[in-house]
Amino acid sequence: MVRTKSMTAAVLAGSLVMASLVMTTAGASTPGVTANTITLGLITELTGPGAAVGTGMVRSAEARIDQQNAEGGVYGRKIKLIVRDDGTNPTTDSTDTADLISNGVFGVIDDSAVTYGGYKLFQQAGVPVTGGAYDGPEWYQLPNTNMFSISGPGNAKDPQYDNFAVFAKDHGGTKCAAVGYGISPSSQASASGFVLSCTREGLQNALLDTSVPFGTVNVTTLVLQIKASGANVLWLPLDGNTNFAIMTGLKQAGVKIKVVINATGYGQVLLNDTNSAHNAQGAWFLATGVPIESKTPATKAFQAALAKYAHYTGVPDFTWYEGWGGADLMIKGLELAGKNPTQSAFISNLHKVTDYSANGLFGPVNFSLSDFVKAPKTLCEYLVQLKGDTYAHPTEVCGAILPNSDQLPNA
Q1: Residue 381 to residues 110, 130, 236, 359: CA-CA distances in angstroms?
Q2: Do 174 and 244 have their domain in common?
Q3: Mind listing the pLDDT tens digit for each residue in 223-282?
Q4: Residues 26 and 149 in one domain
Q5: Can you give the residue range of the structural domain that contains 173?
Q6: What share of the chain is helix, strand, coil (3-state, %, to 5)?
Q7: 383 with 344, same domain?
């Protein structure tokens, strides 16, 4: 994988004829495109409180790009990648966004908890953006039709679904607790939405705290709050390190929770952490895509590619799925943009796709503009349970949208 901090110059030295060809076939005004290369950007957090997620994002995105380049690139053009670290800071994210635009990238994989810091600049410049849409509501707002999430369309007001509440109830839960990060609109909405879904299912609201510092592992006070609440169901829409700290604290405090569901934490990192794995036994984890324990052709191909191009053979976690998905979706858009790609063609043609799934690893999702700001009526997600040193019981949990359940009413 070649990382570059500036756009590749025009074409091979001395080939004025080739330069003319690029201007007529790729479009003289198309950023990031030469006769032989397409330059993309990637923004994630390699430092700051969210740094735990950055490494996997970069390595998996690079692996997907390396795979594509090994197969000849996109219409003969090899893909180059500029990586920027936003430090889990919205202001830095905005600076990185401006920097990538000035460097003339064609598109950007924006897998960050603070994408909301700079997204407007991409929209104004007409730059295609792909990613996970786990930071805020901008992915589902007009006029941001340049943004494509591997999770598909949604409503910026973030209506909720009953899948996890029903799952908790079916597993003996009666009193629900949830916590969210104060800096993250999506984390806050997910926590409050889960508690709402619990009450709609006849479960009690034991605790809701949406002021947790991002990435913190100092959770002693929070653990005592959960204990005092008497909750026996816990939803943790937080990064893995915070989730692990909370489960460890609960174990040490002698608190037994019937159903713990983690938004992140599935992956090799937990299996390698003997102490955290011990304290997380029986907990459920959300898998970003189809979990590898399902052993489908898509998951087998995913693992094989990570082993070949990233030299990674462990259980891929949230970061590996997100990085791979963001890069794969960007490549899909480039292929649809044609031999003479433009950013507008990328955007318009990708909006014609109604069944994107990264060859079965996600979704499928519909990018049709008619569905751009609509939340699907049903939502299906995968959960796995930690048993010993493996993840077991891969389960697809589906649910219906809850009426009047918007969690971001001002979005």
Answers
A1: 22, 20, 15, 17
A2: yes
A3: 999 999 999 999 999 999 999 999 999 999 999 999 999 999 999 999 999 999 999 999
A4: yes
A5: 163-292+377-400
A6: 40, 20, 40
A7: no
What distances in angstroms separate CA 343 from CA 61, 105, 328, one per listed residue? Answer: 20, 10, 17
Do 127 and 169 lie in a common domain? no
Query: Smallest Cα–Cα separation from 154: which of 135, 164, 141, 163?
Result: 141
* CATH (domain of 170): 3.40.50.2300
234 DSSP β-pair partners: 177, 260
Beta-strand relationship, 204-212 and 78-85: unpaired
Instruction: Verify that 146 and 257 share a domain, yes or no.
Output: no
What SS3 state is found at 336? helix
Together in a domain, 277 and 356: no
Q: Does residue 236 share a domain with residue 339? A: no
Amino acid (one-letter) located at 199 = T
Cis-peptide into 394, omega within 30 deg: no
For residue 407, is it within any domain? Answer: no
**In sequence order, what are the residues at sequence separation of 6 or more whose Cβ sits closer than 8 angstroms to the Cβ of residue 274?**
none
Tell me what pLDDT residue 329 has. Answer: 98
Is 16 a residue whose pLDDT tops 70? no
Condensed to tens digits (0 to 9), the pLDDT of residues 162-213 reads 999 999 999 999 999 999 999 999 899 999 999 999 999 999 999 999 999 9
Residues 6+ apart with CB under 8 A from 233: 168, 173, 174, 175, 176, 177, 198, 203, 206, 257, 258, 259, 260, 261
Locate tokens 């025009």: which residue?
Answer: 10
**Proportion of the chain above pLDDT 70, given as a percent:** 93
